Protein backbone atom coordinates (compact mmCIF):
# COMPACT_ATOMS: atom_id res chain seq x y z
CA UNK A 1 0.00 0.00 0.00
CA UNK A 2 1.33 3.42 -0.97
CA UNK A 3 1.36 6.38 1.33
CA UNK A 4 0.65 9.70 -0.39
CA UNK A 5 2.64 12.80 0.49
CA UNK A 6 1.54 16.27 -0.59
CA UNK A 7 4.21 18.92 -1.06
CA UNK A 8 3.51 22.59 -1.74
CA UNK A 9 6.27 23.26 -4.28
CA UNK A 10 5.01 26.50 -5.80
CA UNK A 11 2.13 28.87 -5.29
CA UNK A 12 0.13 27.34 -8.16
CA UNK A 13 1.24 23.72 -8.44
CA UNK A 14 1.08 20.81 -6.06
CA UNK A 15 2.73 17.51 -6.65
CA UNK A 16 1.45 14.28 -5.19
CA UNK A 17 4.26 11.82 -4.74
CA UNK A 18 3.14 8.24 -5.03
CA UNK A 19 5.83 5.60 -5.18
CA UNK A 20 8.18 6.62 -8.01
CA UNK A 21 5.56 8.43 -10.13
CA UNK A 22 4.68 12.12 -9.93
CA UNK A 23 1.12 13.26 -10.60
CA UNK A 24 0.74 16.99 -11.28
CA UNK A 25 -2.37 18.67 -9.91
CA UNK A 26 -2.93 22.31 -10.81
CA UNK A 27 -4.53 24.55 -8.21
CA UNK A 28 -7.23 26.41 -10.14
CA UNK A 29 -10.05 28.84 -9.46
CA UNK A 30 -12.59 30.75 -11.51
CA UNK A 31 -11.38 34.35 -11.73
CA UNK A 32 -14.04 36.10 -13.83
CA UNK A 33 -17.53 35.40 -15.13
CA UNK A 34 -18.71 37.46 -18.09
CA UNK A 35 -22.11 39.05 -17.95
CA UNK A 36 -23.38 40.71 -21.11
CA UNK A 37 -24.66 44.24 -20.44
CA UNK A 38 -26.36 46.95 -22.47
CA UNK A 39 -24.35 49.84 -21.03
CA UNK A 40 -21.21 49.87 -18.89
CA UNK A 41 -22.18 52.80 -16.69
CA UNK A 42 -25.73 51.69 -15.87
CA UNK A 43 -24.41 48.21 -15.04
CA UNK A 44 -21.66 49.64 -12.81
CA UNK A 45 -24.26 51.75 -11.00
CA UNK A 46 -26.51 48.73 -10.36
CA UNK A 47 -23.75 46.41 -9.17
CA UNK A 48 -22.01 48.98 -6.97
CA UNK A 49 -24.89 51.08 -5.64
CA UNK A 50 -27.68 48.48 -5.45
CA UNK A 51 -25.81 45.23 -4.83
CA UNK A 52 -22.96 46.92 -2.94
CA UNK A 53 -20.18 45.36 -5.02
CA UNK A 54 -16.75 46.95 -5.34
CA UNK A 55 -15.67 48.39 -8.67
CA UNK A 56 -12.40 46.46 -9.02
CA UNK A 57 -11.28 47.80 -12.39
CA UNK A 58 -12.53 50.03 -15.19
CA UNK A 59 -9.97 50.28 -17.97
CA UNK A 60 -10.58 51.77 -21.41
CA UNK A 61 -9.38 49.30 -24.07
CA UNK A 62 -10.65 51.12 -27.14
CA UNK A 63 -13.14 53.90 -27.86
CA UNK A 64 -16.01 51.35 -27.57
CA UNK A 65 -14.62 48.68 -25.22
CA UNK A 66 -13.78 48.68 -21.52
CA UNK A 67 -12.48 46.06 -19.11
CA UNK A 68 -14.87 46.41 -16.18
CA UNK A 69 -14.68 44.12 -13.14
CA UNK A 70 -17.02 44.21 -10.14
CA UNK A 71 -17.17 41.88 -7.15
CA UNK A 72 -18.67 41.52 -3.70
CA UNK A 73 -16.23 42.76 -1.08
CA UNK A 74 -13.68 40.04 -0.32
CA UNK A 75 -14.74 37.78 -3.20
CA UNK A 76 -12.04 36.21 -5.34
CA UNK A 77 -14.43 35.66 -8.26
CA UNK A 78 -15.31 38.81 -10.17
CA UNK A 79 -17.92 39.71 -12.77
CA UNK A 80 -16.64 41.01 -16.08
CA UNK A 81 -19.23 43.46 -17.40
CA UNK A 82 -19.07 42.90 -21.16
CA UNK A 83 -20.96 45.36 -23.35
CA UNK A 84 -22.94 43.53 -26.01
CA UNK A 85 -21.78 44.01 -29.59
CA UNK A 86 -24.16 43.02 -32.37
CA UNK A 87 -27.59 41.42 -32.45
CA UNK A 88 -26.54 37.99 -31.22
CA UNK A 89 -24.90 39.30 -28.03
CA UNK A 90 -27.70 41.83 -27.49
CA UNK A 91 -30.22 38.96 -27.60
CA UNK A 92 -28.48 37.41 -24.56
CA UNK A 93 -28.77 40.46 -22.32
CA UNK A 94 -30.88 39.48 -19.33
CA UNK A 95 -31.21 35.83 -20.31
CA UNK A 96 -27.76 34.29 -20.34
CA UNK A 97 -29.00 30.96 -18.97
CA UNK A 98 -32.32 30.42 -20.72
CA UNK A 99 -34.41 31.55 -17.76
CA UNK A 100 -32.59 29.59 -15.04
CA UNK A 101 -30.85 31.15 -12.07
CA UNK A 102 -27.51 32.44 -13.35
CA UNK A 103 -25.53 33.46 -10.27
CA UNK A 104 -25.61 32.68 -6.54
CA UNK A 105 -24.90 35.51 -4.12
CA UNK A 106 -24.04 34.23 -0.64
CA UNK A 107 -24.55 36.58 2.29
CA UNK A 108 -23.87 36.51 6.02
CA UNK A 109 -27.19 38.28 6.73
CA UNK A 110 -30.03 37.34 4.38
CA UNK A 111 -32.68 39.65 5.83
CA UNK A 112 -30.41 42.71 5.83
CA UNK A 113 -29.59 42.24 2.15
CA UNK A 114 -33.12 41.20 1.20
CA UNK A 115 -34.61 44.36 2.72
CA UNK A 116 -31.87 46.51 1.16
CA UNK A 117 -32.64 45.10 -2.30
CA UNK A 118 -36.40 45.49 -1.80
CA UNK A 119 -35.94 49.10 -0.69
CA UNK A 120 -33.99 49.70 -3.90
CA UNK A 121 -36.85 48.28 -6.00
CA UNK A 122 -35.03 45.11 -7.03
CA UNK A 123 -37.60 42.66 -8.42
CA UNK A 124 -37.88 39.33 -6.59
CA UNK A 125 -39.34 36.54 -8.71
CA UNK A 126 -39.33 34.01 -5.89
CA UNK A 127 -39.85 35.26 -2.37
CA UNK A 128 -37.79 34.19 0.62
CA UNK A 129 -38.05 30.62 1.81
CA UNK A 130 -36.30 28.38 4.30
CA UNK A 131 -34.67 25.40 2.62
CA UNK A 132 -32.55 22.59 4.04
CA UNK A 133 -29.40 24.45 2.91
CA UNK A 134 -30.43 27.92 4.10
CA UNK A 135 -32.61 30.96 3.44
CA UNK A 136 -33.02 31.81 -0.25
CA UNK A 137 -34.88 34.13 -2.61
CA UNK A 138 -34.54 34.73 -6.35
CA UNK A 139 -34.13 38.25 -7.71
CA UNK A 140 -33.42 39.78 -11.09
CA UNK A 141 -30.61 42.15 -11.93
CA UNK A 142 -31.24 45.30 -13.96
CA UNK A 143 -31.46 43.28 -17.18
CA UNK A 144 -33.48 40.31 -15.90
CA UNK A 145 -30.76 37.74 -15.16
CA UNK A 146 -31.88 35.62 -12.21
CA UNK A 147 -29.80 35.45 -9.03
CA UNK A 148 -30.19 33.44 -5.83
CA UNK A 149 -29.64 35.42 -2.64
CA UNK A 150 -28.60 32.80 -0.09
CA UNK A 151 -27.61 32.67 3.56
CA UNK A 152 -26.25 29.17 4.14
CA UNK A 153 -27.08 27.32 7.35
Structural overview:
β1 (5-8) and β2 form a beta hairpin. The protein is globular and about 45 Å long. The strands form three sheets. The chain has a four-stranded mixed β-sheet, covered by helices on one side. It has three domains: 1-28; 31-93, 2,3-Dihydroxybiphenyl 1,2-Dioxygenase, domain 1, CATH 3.10.180.10; 97-153, Roll (2,3-Dihydroxybiphenyl 1,2-Dioxygenase, domain 1), CATH 3.10.180. Mean pLDDT is 89; it is low at 1-19. The chain is α+β, with helices and mostly antiparallel strands and 153 residues long. It contains three helices and eleven strands. It has helices spanning 40-50, 86-90, 110-119; strands at residues 5-8, 13-18, 21-26, 32-37, 54-62, 65-71, 78-83, 101-106, 124-131, 134-140, 146-152.
Describe the secondary structure blueprint for this structure.
Blueprint: E1 5-8, E2 13-18, E3 21-26, E4 32-37, H1 40-50, E5 54-62, E6 65-71, E7 78-83, H2 86-90, E8 101-106, H3 110-119, E9 124-131, E10 134-140, E11 146-152
Parallel strand pairs: 4-7, 8-11
Antiparallel strand pairs: 1-2, 2-3, 5-6, 6-7, 9-10, 10-11
Amino acid sequence: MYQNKVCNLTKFFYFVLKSSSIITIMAQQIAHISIVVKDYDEAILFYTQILGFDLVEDTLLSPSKRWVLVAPQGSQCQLLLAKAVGEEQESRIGNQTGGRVFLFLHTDDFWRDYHHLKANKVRFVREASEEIYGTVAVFEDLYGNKWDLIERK
